């Protein structure tokens, strides 16, 4: 699977799957989650509400992933995953890696060929950008999906993109 680093807006990525750094409610929020729900339109929220009414009454657990339609996004599906909040006193990196691994598995099960990820937990969940990039790339590089041929890590802003490029080149 090829890994591409992209600076930009994940809601504009033309891929089979866009990954949403969701909150556990699956009902939208700020950051990437809010942007995906706004641009994707009401079809995403409708499917998320159905998931809450059936399988995820208490919300989607951290590290897990689930798919919905992509609505008006230039993608076929959205895979929602809940990243962990950064903690200086507890190692939550396995949960962060689970977000990427479980999203890849869901996308692969859907038959997706291309996938775009945000830098999960690096926004309002305060995960340090350099470590968030390392965690993401460690999972993406080790993955052996059957259908996926390209994974994009879509980074918001030139500083985050530059940091990711530097880390990608040294790993």
TrEMBL record:
<dbReference type="InterPro" id="IPR002589">
    <property type="entry name" value="Macro_dom"/>
</dbReference>
<dbReference type="InterPro" id="IPR043472">
    <property type="entry name" value="Macro_dom-like"/>
</dbReference>
<feature type="domain" description="Macro">
    <location>
        <begin position="1"/>
        <end position="171"/>
    </location>
</feature>
<dbReference type="Pfam" id="PF01661">
    <property type="entry name" value="Macro"/>
</dbReference>
<protein>
    <submittedName>
        <fullName>O-acetyl-ADP-ribose deacetylase</fullName>
    </submittedName>
</protein>
């Amino acid at each position: 699977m090829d890994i591409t680093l992209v600076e930009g807006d994940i809601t504009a990525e033309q891929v089979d799957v866009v990954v949403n750094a969701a909150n556990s409610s699956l009902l939208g929020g700020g950051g990437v989650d809010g942007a995906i729900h706004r641009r994707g339109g009401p079809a995403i929220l409708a499917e998320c509400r159905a998931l809450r009414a059936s399988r995820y009454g208490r919300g989607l657990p951290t590290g897990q992933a689930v798919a919905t339609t992509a609505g008006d996004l230039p993608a076929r599906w959205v895979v929602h995953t809940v990243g962990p909040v950064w903690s200086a006193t507890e190692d939550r990196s396995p949960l962060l890696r689970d977000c990427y691994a479980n999203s890849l598995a869901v996308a692969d099960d859907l038959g997706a060929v291309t996938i775009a990820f945000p830098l999960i937990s690096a926004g309002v969940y305060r995960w340090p950008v350099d470590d968030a990039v390392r965690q993401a790339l460690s999972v993406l590089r080790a993955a052996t999906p059957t259908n996926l041929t390209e994974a994009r890590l879509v980074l918001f802003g030139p500083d985050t993109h530059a940091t990711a490029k530097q880390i990608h080149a040294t790993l």
